[in-house]
Protein: Methyltransferase domain-containing protein
Organism: Exophiala bonariae
Amino acid sequence: MGDDNDSALGESIAGSLYTASLTSSVFNYTYENGRRYHAYHAGNYVLPNDEQEQDRLEYTHHLYRLLVGGASYRAPLLDHRPQRILDIGCGTGIWCIDVADEFPESSVIGVDLSPIQPSWVPPNCRFYVDDIEREWTYSPAEHFDYIHARDLIGFIGPWKQLLSHIFDNLKPGGFFEIQDCTTPPESIDSGLDLVPDLVQWQLKMFEGMAMLGKESPGDAYGIQSYMTEVGFVDTHVEIHKVPIGPWAQGNKHKELGLILQEHVSDSVEPYTMAVYTRALGFSAEDAQATVERVKNNIQKTEAHLYLSYYFLWGQKPF
């Protein structure tokens, strides 16, 4: 994975050079259960990439920013003014675009398996089709001041290998930040007893992702431990517990709860279908029935469910 022409998107997509053979192959999408999936290294990522999923990803971006007062990052970037920024698994590119606008003097690069980013982007922003689980080929001159990842837990395997790639491709003093949430949902009381389908679904998802070779290293502190092992220092964890549904006290919590309840409900189907049908052997009909039961559980505000969203960052030593 590096800044080479073989990896770059077409000029009509993101202003980069490209090869015609790669361009045609990355658009040769696969279709399953009425959803569209990436073509490049097909099957390596289980979420779709169609417009419905792109809308969900943009909603996710705004949810993360809402948690931290509109910020796109928590690492101390304003103190360091990064020159080169990389977003791995950039999705629609919305995070890259926001950060490129905030740091116009920086070069912002997004990589993803899917070429779903917009054509019109800031001049300092570029997108590449690449697989972050393959060997990284950036030269030392191309190393980064800041690398960002979001919502990759459970979709990568093994995590320590990826973190080693990240560490090796940061400049001394550079930062890595991951933004994610801990699953399964928790309850402030015994509410999990009220949502057995949700609990069982999460266990089956862990099982299915493991069968596909992906690792779920637990909560933020599991990833933090891995980061320390590969060499990161001065790591920080910031956790935001967000209710699922309008059951918590206070207008802000109720508003966030409604937003997250809708978001989680919308996420069940794209998360489920490929894992249940590819790995666990479910028929599409049975998988869809599971989706409906889980979505019904998510509406049970009396279960007092919440998710722990976290922002975790650390620094490569000088």
Remarks:
- Residues 4-21 have pLDDT under 50 and may be disordered.
- The radius of gyration is 19 Å.
- The beta strands are 30-32, 35-37, 84-88, 107-112, 125-129, 144-150, 170-187, 233-243, 305-315.
